Amino acid sequence: MTSRLSQLELDLEESRANEVKLKEKLEAVEGAEEALETEMKKLSVHVKQWRKAADAAATVLAKGMEMKGGRRILERCGSMDKQFGSEGEGIFGVRNDGRR
Fold first, then answer.
1. Sequence-distant (≥ 6) Cβ neighbours of residue 73 within 8 angstroms
2. Which of 53, 73, 54 is nearest to 63 (CA)?
3. Per-residue confidence (pLDDT) for residue 82, from 0 to 100
4. Residue 66 C-alpha from the chain's centroid
5. 3-class SS at 29?
6. Cα separation, 39 vs 32, whole angstroms
7. Which top-level group of life is the source organism from (predicted)?
8. Is residue 90 within 8 Å of 99, Cβ to Cβ?
9. Across residues 27-34, what is the average pLDDT?
10. Residue 24 — pLDDT band, cuts 50, 70, 90?
11. For 60-95, how does the pLDDT look when each residue is reduced to its tens digit (9 = 90+)?
């Protein structure tokens, strides 16, 4: 009877130790799950932003294609003259004919 009782006590101790380990694992998994959910929310926001940007770009491109001769695209490129010089100057001050 005594050996049976001591065996049950050992089993109980093992079960408690196992319970502690399982609780620690559960807490770790729950923490990882929470971190992944946060990351998924961030990624979802980014995906929505990129989708909106892509839709806006597609709209601009579609409107540009509707205009005759790509006039809209030329107008937009022409606006870059202010940043890269004017009067025939291109990027980095190099003229369109290759001279500085």
1. 64
2. 73
3. 53
4. 33
5. helix
6. 11
7. Eukaryota
8. no
9. 97
10. very high
11. 888 876 655 555 554 555 555 555 554 555 555 555
CB 67 within 8 A of CB 75: no
- What totals of helices (H) and strands (E) does the chain contain, helices first? 3, 0
Separation between Cα atoms, residue 41 and residue 6, nearest integer Å: 52
Residue 81 structure tokens: 């003259």
Nearest to 64 by CA among 77, 53, 52: 77
> What angle is formed at CA 18 by the lines to CA 13 and CA 19, rounded to 5 degrees?
95
Backbone angles phi, psi at 99, to 5 degrees: -85, 160
Structure-model confidence comparison of residues 70 and 29, the more confident one? 29
Coil, strand or helix: which one is 90?
coil
Distance CA 3, CA 9 (A): 10
Distance CA 90, CA 96 (A): 6
Q: Which residue has the tokens 């003229």?
A: 95
